[in-house]
Amino acid sequence: MLTMILALAACPADTADTATTDTNADADTDTDTDTDTGDCIASTETCNGADDDCDGEVDEAGSTAENNYYADADHDGYGDTADSVAACAAPGGYVADHTDCDDAQGEVHPGQSEVANDGHDNDCDPLTVAGVNVYDAFSPTANPFGDWSLGYSTGADGAGFTAFSGYAEFDASVDFWAVGGSGEPRVYRNHTAVDWTYASVTFAASSIILHPGPAGEYAVLRWTAPASTRCEVDVSFDGRDSTSTAVAAYVAGALLTAGDVSGFGSTLPVRGSFSVDAGDTVDFTVGPNGNYNFDSTGLEGTLACL
Which one is predicted more confidently, 267 or 230? Predict the structure, then answer.
């Protein structure tokens, strides 16, 4: 009997692809559009929303084309360049922008309006400052008023400064601070929009006027820095009477500008930039230059600090 042995030939197994382009008709088990289970062996994870290296993770740490993201601790939308992570997408609490200059202050970031003399670089631009008119140092209800004080000193540098304790109205247009509300030295204010004249003195509209005392006292307008900061000053002393006064500006006791104002309309400008530490003072002083009579001296302009 003839026995017939039938041999079945085995089909060759598919070979796993090592390229990302599949050439074998296998199932797409990793659902990456390539139908070979070995199609990711040589792949590198890339930030593209796919599991390029077939490890079950998508866009994990170390992927190519990652971006840097920056901690936004104050939640103002601007991050801290000193605290960053690399990732395909921003983790919670991180943002793409790294231009915040103070990540502990939500009101400090690029584009913010600069606030005068608050000790913060509100817009993160150290070249931008906002000025306060020295006229705004005068308040009829309080002295000191904010960071400003009106008073007198025994020296041109503000030494021995004493704040005035008394407020009074000179008339409907002009009021002043003095010791106990009378006598001199004084700091006056014309709170109207027009010049006001009394005897030989003319108080300029919306201005501050300083008058020294009979015992050599200097009338002082003082600003005290609330924080370490940088400032610019642009003010002018000007004679408001037949004035002959010694005027000066000091920063933390160091001379910035000094000179004399002699006669009505005579001026001495004070301009400059400087840095101060918290608690430092900027003093604008007017003292007698011989006789203290007829020594009303105006002060106008701005002090601008971060």
Answer: 267
Cβ neighbors of 235 (< 8 A, separation 6 or more) are 134, 249, 269, 270, 271, 284, 299, 300, 301, 302, 303
Helix (H, G, I), strand (E, B) or coil at 186: strand
**Closest CA relative to residue 216, chosen from 284, 260, 262, 155:** 155
Nearest to 294 by CA among 235, 243, 221, 234: 243
- Cα separation, 304 vs 132, in Å, equals 6
Domains of the chain, residue spans? 61-110, 132-305
CATH architecture of 132-305: Sandwich (2.60)
Q: What is the CA radius of gyration of the chain?
A: 37
Output the pLDDT for position 120: 77
DSSP bridge partners of 270:
235
Separate counts of helices (H) and strands (E) for the chain:
0, 19
Query: 0.70 exceeded by the pTM?
Result: no
